[in-house]
Design a protein that fits this description.
homodimer, seven-stranded mixed beta sheet, 8 helices, disordered N terminus, disordered C terminus, hydrolase (chains A, B), inositol-5-diphosphate-1,2,3,4,6-pentakisphosphate diphosphatase activity (chains A, B), Tyr_Pase_AS (chains A, B), EC 3.6.1.52 (chains A, B)
């Protein structure tokens, strides 16, 4: 069953297109991958050796998507996955994917989601650069935290704050975990969303930027970093976090 | 109690110096951070709001160590942590640290380990480059997979295969998780060890190199990549893995 509806929490039209391609998978696959501590004397394999051999031998290597990485418990990031990456993605036991690109999701990818019970949250953010020549008084509210583009030293890139905020809520909801965040190349839009996650985790800004730059490399944008710097996480502070930096889970 | 002894599995002297600075912490802190799925209708905070405020407000931001990242469930990587990073490291609930540097571990860091019940596994691998001018016949067995340095296009960097193999065993033992792997800058020695983990996870070599280069950046070494390419994981294939790429935990 294919259900397409607006996210209730969205504040504007088309901010998030949520597509359920199949009923949500019943077992929390990610949690199952965390084994209880093994017996103290010997670490033993949980499956017969024959199965292990079949799993790990042969030429069928995994191809993670471009710029793939683990962000934190139950949260992954990457560039746009294609069919070559599907067998790898299956090993993550994903419950949902957050796509930050506005283009219609490719049919092949939709089929993959359908057959694996993965829910798609699509937040369309344009990936191209453009120069906004409007004076600051005419800029819409999502851009209010920026100085007018005409005084910026590089083309203004519109990372819409409200959309990132809605995407963040999806990321923070552990019912969606394990979740993969992706855009086209896993650099700018994904980098900004992950940067906001890091701010919620109380990372200092230089560490947030260091991580952003590791993925964006030569394509790093000052405007993206300015977006992350200005992003206010105070309204999200009451969201529960299962992150490794959330002290409450260490007590 | 400070106990210093040779790792039983080590095949040579000083391959691994294991230092227990305190009794192992009883609770598996990392596992506790994974919340059970919240009630279906509403995600609720697990701690009182007042505690949340105290945790997340104020100026006390976390400073992750240089090149910090999550490798997989229960496995982190970074450059050498210093006292500025300790409050961040505490949030990870580490059980152990794998240090790949040969120098004596700094006293401040030892105190941190002691007060947090973290076990240190030290595998001393030299970090500097040197040109090995010995003919191939005189190279020791750990270098047997390399061509003689004199024909390599760059200085030969000695990543000792046996030491990496012993370090891998520590990484794969979930009793040591959560574990932080670090060297000096988190680029070469750490990058090689993580690359071997990725091979165990059956990542294709181009993805292994892509990740290595993301951290090493301009300092990437062909010899490190050659080491990872030649590293044979077949003898480790019967080790249990709690990785996200281990299919057995998704069934």
């Amino acid at each position: 069953m294919k259900v397409e509806h607006q996210n209730e929490a969205a504040t504007g039209p088309q901010m998030c297109r949520t597509i359920e391609v199949a009923p949500p998978p019943p077992p929390p696959a990610f949690a199952h991958r965390h084994l209880p501590p093994p017996p103290p004397e010997k670490v033993v394999a949980a499956v017969p050796a024959a199965v292990e051999d079949r799993d790990r031998e042969g030429d069928d290597l995994f191809i993670p998507p471009l710029n793939f990485a683990m962000v934190d418990n139950g949260i992954f990031r990457s560039g746009f996955p294609d069919s070559a990456n599907f067998s790898f993605l299956q090993t993550l036991g994903l419950r949902s994917i957050i796509c930050l690109c506005p283009e219609p999701y490719p049919e092949t990818n939709m089929e993959f989601l359908k057959s694996n019970g993965i829910r798609l949250f699509q937040f369309g953010i344009e990936g191209y650069k453009y120069i906004d020549l409007l004076p600051s008084a005419q800029m819409d509210s999502s851009c209010s935290s920026y100085a007018p583009a005409c005084v910026l030293p590089e083309p203004f890139v519109n990372i819409p704050e409200d959309t990132i905020r809605e995407a963040l809520k999806v990321v923070l909801d552990v019912r969606n975990h394990p979740v993969l965040i992706h855009c086209k190349r896993g650099k700018h839009r994904t980098g900004c969303l992950v940067g906001c996650i890091r701010k919620l985790q109380r990372w200092c800004l230089s560490s947030v930027f260091d991580e952003y730059q590791r993925f964006a490399a030569a394509k790093a944008r000052v405007s993206d970093q300015r977006f992350m710097e200005l992003f206010d996480v105070s309204s999200l502070k009451h969201q529960p976090m299962s992150f490794s930096c959330s002290k409450k889970y260490n007590n």
